[in-house]
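Here's what a typical entry looks like (Transcription factor E):
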Amino acid sequence: MLENPLIQQVLFEIMDEDVVGFDVLSVLINTNEVTDDEISRQLDVKLNNIRRILYKLYEARLVDYNREKDEETNWYTYTWKPSLEKVPALVAKKMKNVLNGLKEQLEMEETNMFFFCSDCEIKFTFEDAMDSGFRCPQCGGMMYEYDNKKDISLLKEQINYLEDEFTKNPLFSAY
């Protein structure tokens, strides 16, 4: 399941783009139940970093923990375990949001005329370009009509890819 690029992307975002998170998940999956301290030692990563990743995963409900108090030291030990059955639903929700955003962007691209400042590389709608007299508000340079056919084509490809993935991938069949 973790080999799926869509799942990897969503997990990467959940873990604040920290690739160590995948190592943490691997340890959790392979051991099924482990303390944060054991993960830290096994991966040779600072305990604070491991805990930060685990808390992010917990917020997404992708891991659970048990807390036990050591009666001698009065310290708590947290034992973590994976709870990855929620991953497909989480990814499906994220995919739907991305898909909706892409469809909105496609509609915007298809229903508007755009202008472009080649110096600043900023794209403007016709209305915004007209309001500024077809001069870039950043640099004052002249704006030129922008051909967005490639943008439209790319958006359609991305939408088709996500829709295909959503309908054909067995991970998402229930969603």
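The chain has two domains: 5-82, 88-172.

More examples are in the samples folder.
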